[in-house]
Amino acid sequence: MFENILIWFVVIPVIMMAGLGLCRNSNMNAIRAVMVVCSTALLGLSVWLCCDFLRLRGMGVDDEMLFTGSWMWYEPLNIHLAVGVDGISVLMLLLSSVIVFAGTFASWKISPLPKNFFLWFALLSTGVFGFFISIDIFTMFMFYEVALIPMYLLIGVWGTGRKEYSAMKLTLMLMGGSAFLMLGLLGIFWHSAPAGGQLTWNILEISHNASIAPEWQYMLFCFTFVGFGVLGAMFPFHTWSPDGHACAPTAVSMLHAGVLMKLGGYGCFRIAIFLLPQAANELAWIFIILTGVSIVYGAFSACVQTDLKYINAYSSVSHCGMVLFAILMLNTTAMTGAILQMLSHGLMTALFFALIGMIYGRTHTRDIRQMGGLMKIMPYLGVCYMIAGFASLGLPGLSGFVAEMTIFFGSFQDADLFHRIFVIAATCSIVITAVYILRVVGKLLLGPVQDEHHLALTDAAWFERFSTVTLILCIAGIGCFPNWINETIQHSFAPIIAAVQSAAL
Amino acid sequence: MDITLPILILAIPITMFLILGIGGVKMSKKMAGVLGILGLGTTAVLAYIVALTYYFSGDPLFIVDGVRQQYQVFDVTWLAFTQSLVVNIGFLLDPISALMLIVITTISFMVHLYSWGYMEGEQGFQRYYAFLSLFTFSMLGLVVATNIFQMYIFWELVGVSSYLLIGFYYKLPSAVSASKKAFIVTRFADLGFLIGILILSYYTDTFNFVDMTSNPDGVLLSTGGATFMGASVLTWAMVLIFTGGMGKSAMMPLHIWLPDAMEGPTPVSALIHAATMVVAGVYLVARMFPVYCTVDAAMTFICVVGAITAFYAAVVACAQIDIKRILAFSTISQIAFMMVSLGVAYDKPIEGVHYSGLGYMAGMFHLFTHAMFKALLFLGAGALIHAVHSNNYTAMGGLRKYMPITHITFLFGCLAIAGIWPFSGFFSKDEMLAAMFARHWFWGAWMTMVAGLTAFYMFRMYFLVFWWKENPHYKEHKPHDAPWQMSLPLIILAIVSLCAGWIPFGEFVTWNGEPYHIHIELSVAVTSICIAVCAIALAGVMYAKENPLPAKVKSFWPTLWEAAHRRFYWDEIYMFITHKIIFGIICKSIAWFDRHVIDATMDGFAKITQKTSYAIRGMQSGEIQAYVAWYIAGAVVLAAITWLCLI
Fold it and tell me: In chain A, which stretches have pLDDT less than 50?
């Protein structure tokens, strides 16, 4: 079992938890050592996986999923621990490990109870990594829940502001989504094989069987899409996001916006669209309306917020809306754009939240009306914030531009007026995004210093620089050299597009 | 052609940006300045080599039977949307890109040199040079773009460098809001550009300029006669693409950002907001010219927008106090001139071979000469501001004695822009007017009038700054000419402004690559010179010596003067729309809706659940009597139901 490289993505976080369990809360250095070693190991592992994956693809290995493995877990219901990755999962694993790595450094001085914080943080990572490597929808769902539960404690204990309320709201709303999802997944399971066949949870087998009747598909599609859509901050199920992010501690916001929200988008195409292609073809328009609204609505809402985290939470609603919107276009280019947007949004939101945490740690306020001229006081953080802002508003050379353009050009391939109108509405978001980003940059970083006390503040420490530089390098890397990622994703979408197209006939 | 030089032309400025941007903090000012100037100097030399090789080498790659060719030096895949829709990054050499290479690197080099003196005492000197390098890189990338998407990429990058440079004095709230305004207005225009590209590329299935422009009829055919709301989709696409150009080139009604952009350092205004970036819109139309020619509606649209803008900006320039704003409006007006010139050009000989494509050649010619003399004027204005520490002409007057070099060079610039023989502006303006008259007398007459206004407001400024009466403040603080780093660029540019008109421009730049022999259209030339001289004389009478005439004129039409001074209230209109309507109504109500409707519904579910559970929790009281009572009641109800069912 352990000869499969993918299993290690779950084993390392478990080792991390065990290691942390041996440390004492007062021994900060030991805790940091465990975290740094394990998160570096994860990063190394995912880079290694990525290289190995590209090598195998380069050699012409053309299976849908590579590094597959399957171990029986619960025989009566045919539940397996089944793993396997395609290009998209590899990139998601890479993204997750980068953010776990950066998040470790961003919460270098977490208090109180650092050990417990990192324990829950590690559990959350286990869930995230487990989700991306699974191809058995039951284990996938299990890891999904494993990733959600720690959020409650992480926000409730280490958060700020109305943390109990927000933690409760976030957990309940996401659990509500999970309930829908569970219904959908069970429905898929019970129809997963033609009459008399062996029922299965395995994604590849279900899609191969293609035995779900259309009338069931419609219902199950709505369940699963809404279930995942809640986590993907789809309008009108997005309100957990502003409150949750506003109260969460830095590293948790990073991981949550950076990776956890991607679970939603990933699930949407991997399960809802791949397994229920006929429904996807026919019902996509409903969700195109909802996500199209998300994009514009989130952007407009962000324009009038005064709390830095609220601004980014609403901007996430807009950007994540773009992910789901593009997925629903059901063509390779747009869906590739969706994955690029997931990567881009993950990195840049993580950067944003890291920076907001650092700024908040110094000024003890997140209200942009009470800050100003920070560029003069902390130039390093100011420049980083500006880079994150430029990535968010889609400046060429940074990842946001590549993702958005791929989405727009892909979405524009659907020639009917309905799609056209929504695509053009979505493109309008590039202007609104510029408005709210520049508004924040202008108020927060530029202009005269608002508060005399801020003059005494210091710029970033080494661990903060380390965390931000990692993220910026990734953002610029995708932005400058997008094509290898683009090709990897496009190739991985082939089976999904094939399923959708054959269902459309 | 060897691809090393073109790659270096792009690579050196971006490397400089990274070096100065990342390492600038640790560098001395002198080091940063020298690095910046050396880097740009090298780029300029390489660009000249490439451009001159293109024009003069006679290599069959570049010229075949006297017809200049478009040559893609390299073109590598950057991002493949689909099999056929691929974004490349490349380097296209053709008459206009070679021209722009020369213009950009020349002006940029002058500005780098000039800034060494001008920005000497400023904080963030290293950052300034870093941003200048970034701008130069982006602008060069824009002009050598092989495809419209590459152009869009660099289009956005010049936008952001402009944002960074306008907001260079970031501690001033006015600079911050000016930079924000510039970015958002141009972004809004870029939205049109993007949608235009979306439409165009959907039908043509390519981004490549050469593919599109060498076969404009193919582009037309590819749309299959599709229409939307009465206009063909190609018209929509081309008008939307032009919208992007309107934003960058500050055409009405998207001109409002350019006057505010003068908040940036003056050399930046010279480089970005006079000579290079703002002509990107003209360049875009020129680049897509063969396709525009197939769409009459779009060409008419360009003409109308240009003609209105040219007149509007010229009128407003007559009533400004800030000399940089006067120059800004004059830039808007002059760019509009080029737009009209392109708009009146046609690709096929209609009234004899003579005029076909004349407007195109003349527009590009004016782009070239305008870049030189407007950069000169801005740098001269910078020297003035440097000397008196104010942007307003009210703080100047009688400066000709104190600043002779600035005076003479500035006069050269004014004469050039007014179109006086033998200055360069005369030649290019004459060609443009000839092209306009050839299309329709109306365009010619209208633009001749604008040319007269141009001469008037330029000399109004000239006289008010250098003549009029001496400002009393000079006694405390005597103004003097700028240091050599600043004067040298002025002198060089003045000489160029004087001589550039003699270049046989038509031999180098025409829309189809075939040489065009320029000859002065005497009737047009004489008329326009007469009008310009009259306008200058009028300005002289009004402003050469202190006299009550200007005040009288002002009080004769107080409303008009006030309206022109306030730029006909465009900013107020925009303020109303953006702040009151979009921000105040749309954004606020959406945010309110989110908190008080959507979120309240979610909270409502939670509250209902909570209330219900509070309401029924009394049932689990632990009192045995209550349980028994419920048990008996339940049993009775069940029994009753059973009994009812049985009978």
Answer: none
pLDDT given for residue A369 in this prediction: 86
Residues of A whose CB is below 8 A from B149: 405
Q: Are B535 and B452 in contact (CB under 8 A)?
A: yes
Mean per-residue pLDDT for B140-145?
Answer: 93
Nearest in space to B328 (alpha carbons), one of B258, B248, B279, B390: B258
Does the pLDDT of residue B354 top 70, yes or no? Answer: no
C-alpha dist (Å) from residue B470 to B399, B400, B473, B476, B621: 7, 10, 9, 13, 97
Residue whose C-alpha is closest to residue A198's, from A312, A363, A78: A78
R_g of chain B, CA atoms, integer Å: 31
Asked if A208 reaches chain B (Cβ–Cβ under 8 Å), the answer is no
Give the model's pLDDT for residue B349: 62
- Return the residue in A384, A401, A405 with the most chain B beta carbons within 10 A, the one to mutate for interface testing: A405
Average pLDDT taken over every residue of chain B: 87
**Long-range contacts at B27-36 (CB < 8 A, ≥ 24 apart):** B27/B126, B29/B120, B29/B125, B29/B126, B32/B125, B32/B126, B32/B129, B33/B115, B33/B116, B33/B125, B33/B129, B35/B129, B36/B112, B36/B129, B36/B130, B36/B132, B36/B133
The residues with which B89 forms a beta bridge, in sequence order, are B76
CA distance A356 to A335: 30
Q: Name chain B contacts of A402, Cβ cutoff 8 Å.
A: 79
What is the complex's ipTM, to 2 decimals?
Answer: 0.92
| Number of residues in chain B | 647
At B39, is the pLDDT very low, low, confident or very high (cuts 50, 70, 90)?
very high
pLDDT at B203: 86
Has residue B350 got a pLDDT over 70?
A: no
Per-residue pLDDT, averaged over B222-246, amounts to 84
- Cβ–Cβ contacts within 10 Å for residue A114, how many? 22
CB B346 within 8 A of CB B292: no
| HEC profile of A282-300 | HHHHHHHHHHHHHHHHHHH
Q: What share of chain B is helix, strand, coil (3-state, %, to 5)?
A: 75, 5, 20
B contact residues 424-463, partner A, Cβ 8 Å cutoff:
none
Q: Within 10 A of B639 (CB to CB), how many other CB atoms are there?
A: 10
Nearest CB among A333, A406, A434 relative to B183 is that of A434
Q: What is the pLDDT of residue A253?
A: 87
pLDDT of residue B348: 67
Of the candidates A337, A339, A349, A327, which has an alpha carbon nearest to the alpha carbon of residue A404? A337
Token output for A126: 């286990």
Q: At what angle do helices A277-303 and A214-231 cross, to 10 degrees?
A: 30
Between A240-247 and A163-190, two packed helices, what is the crossing angle to 10 degrees?
130
- Report residue B370's pLDDT band, with 50, 70 and 90 as the boundaries: very high
Comparing CA positions, the residue from A274, A144, A177, A179 lying closest to residue A221 is A274
Cross-chain residue pair A434–B77, CB shorter than 8 Å? no
**Any CB–CB contact under 8 A between B599 and chain A?**
yes
Closest listed residue to residue B364, CA positions, set B150, B102, B153, B562:
B102
Can you give the pLDDT at residue A438? 92
B304 interface with A at CB cutoff 8 Å? no
- Token pair recorded at residue B574: 């925009």
pLDDT at residue number B134: 93
How many CB atoms lie under 10 A from the CB of residue A424? 17
Separation of alpha carbons B472 and B391, rounded Å: 17
A–B CB contacts, 8 A cutoff, strictly below: 120
pTM exceeds 0.90, yes or no: yes
Q: Where are the alpha helices (DSSP H) in B86-230?
A: 95-118, 125-143, 148-166, 173-204, 209-213, 216-222
Q: Quick check: B588 contacting A, CB < 8 Å? A: yes
Q: Which of residues 458-477 of A touch B (CB under 8 A)?
A: none
Please give the single-letter amino acid code of residue A471: L
